[in-house]
Each structure stands twice: as structure tokens, then as C-alpha cells.
């Protein structure tokens, strides 16, 4: 198995944290009154996007676990 260096681990941490911020923003939109004013197709696509982003975040979280990343370095979903 190939080894992973600290720069790659930092990259995964940064990617996960950025994604968590985007998920939280999208989740805030999905649960807002503004969301209900969007047309049906956009609501469906945004919900699908949120689900996909959550799945991707789960993969990044598993990678962080694999690399024994300190949990205090990771942002949490709201």
C-alpha cells in the first residue's frame, strides 16, 4: 500500500472542512422560506446535490479516520 504524506493529509482535511461549510450553507437554504419559492426542478436538484455532498463528506471523513486525523481539526456538520 502506498504511503500518504502530511501534505496529502492536510489537503484531505482542508477539502473536508470546505465541503462541510458548503453543506451547511446549502442545508440552510433547503430549510429556508426562499427554498420553497424555487421551482420544483430546482428544489429536486438542490436536494440531490445536498445528498451527494453529504455522501462525499462521509468518504472524506472515512479517509480522515484512516489517517488518524485529530478530530479537533475537522469541522462538523450542523
Task: Give structural notes.
The chain is mainly α. It is 72% helix and 0% strand. Helix 1 (6-30) runs antiparallel to helix 3.
* First and last CA, distance: 35 Å
Structural class: mainly alpha
What is the percentage of strand-forming residues?
A: under 5%
Q: Helix amount, in percent?
A: over 70%
Shape summary: elongated
pLDDT averaged over residues: 94
Low-confidence stretches are none
Number of helices: 3
What is the C-alpha radius of gyration, as a whole number of Å?
15 Å
Give the H and E element order: HHH
Largest sheet: none
How many runs of DSSP E, i.e. beta strands?
Answer: 0
Spell out the blueprint of helices and strands.
Blueprint lengths: L5 H25 L2 H4 L3 H27 L12
Helix pairs in contact: 1-3
Task: Describe the structure concisely.
The chain is mainly alpha-helical. It contains three helices and no strands.
List the main descriptive attributes of the protein structure presented here.
mainly alpha, 78 residues
Amino acid at each position: 500500500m502506498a504511503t500518504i504524506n502530511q501534505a496529502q493529509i492536510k489537503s484531505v482535511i482542508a477539502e473536508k472542512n470546505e465541503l462541510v461549510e458548503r453543506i451547511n450553507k446549502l442545508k440552510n437554504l433547503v430549510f429556508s422560506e426562499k427554498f420553497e419559492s424555487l421551482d420544483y426542478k430546482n428544489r429536486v436538484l438542490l436536494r440531490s446535490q445536498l445528498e451527494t455532498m453529504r455522501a462525499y463528506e462521509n468518504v472524506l471523513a472515512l479517509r480522515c479516520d484512516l489517517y488518524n486525523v485529530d478530530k479537533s481539526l475537522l469541522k462538523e456538520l450542523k
